[in-house]
Specification:
DNA binding, Cupin domain-containing protein, six-stranded antiparallel β-sheet, Jelly Rolls, 13 strands
Length: 216
């Protein structure tokens, strides 16, 4: 993805959130080295400094949503694979309400076992599936008051198609030169290659969406 120019209680998710944030840097480093790319190479293509990539890999900085998409695109991996941990599998959904299931045909993620990641601007992603090699991403995204999907008001673009629904609060979605205010229950779909960004304009309330991105 390139730049165009420019709560409910989450206590149950905190351990996996901390784990995802701890693993994301080493995972990016591992994939970068497997691609035989230097920090300078990855930073140049992603549009950031080698030092910033190094900070992310060492866990000293969190990427923005836009940068995360860009890194996944440059490294040629599904964006959910950056979350680092291998798939969790379980044997049964009937006897253990805390067991995740991941097979060729079924992916079940218990709420207490969701992996989540807090971006640099405070936006929180929670994965709703644990099949990172699939061609789609299915997640819940929470925007604290005044937060945006990108830093400095920049737009993002990347391959694919995306769609979703607002389940709490209101969210402004900017696509090219148009702004759409989505309230609870409103849904939207668009081509991800169009310059876009998400903004919670409220100063007091969170906005929460269920969102799907299909990679072409």
């Amino acid at each position: 993805m390139s730049n165009n120019s420019n709560a409910t209680n989450q206590t149950d998710s905190e351990p996996l959130e901390a784990e995802a944030e701890k693993l994301i840097g080493p995972k990016i480093k591992e994939i970068r080295k497997n691609r035989r790319m230097s920090l300078r190479d990855l930073g140049k293509i992603a549009g950031v400094s080698a030092g910033h990539i190094s900070q992310i890999e060492r866990g000293l900085a969190s990427p923005s949503v836009g940068l995360l998409y860009k890194l996944a695109e440059v490294l040629d991996i599904p964006i959910d694979a950056i979350f680092g941990r291998d798939n969790i599998s379980g044997d049964s959904v009937t006897n253990n309400n805390l067991t995740n299931i991941n097979s060729n045909n079924v992916s079940l993620v218990r709420k207490v076992n969701r992996k989540s990641l807090t971006m640099s601007g405070g936006v929180v992603w929670e994965l709703l599936t644990q099949q990172p090699e699939q061609s789609y991403s299915f997640r819940q995204i929470t925007f604290p008051p005044g937060t945006s999907s990108t830093e400095n008001g920049e737009y993002m673009r990347h391959t694919g198609q995306e769609f979703g629904i607002v389940i709490e609060g209101q969210l402004e979605v900017s696509i090219e030169f148009e702004q759409y205010i989505l309230a609870e229950g409103d849904s939207l779909a668009f081509d991800s290659q169009l310059p876009h960004k998400f903004t919670n304009l409220s100063k007091t309330d969170i906005a929460r969406i269920i969102w799907v991105h299909i990679k072409r």
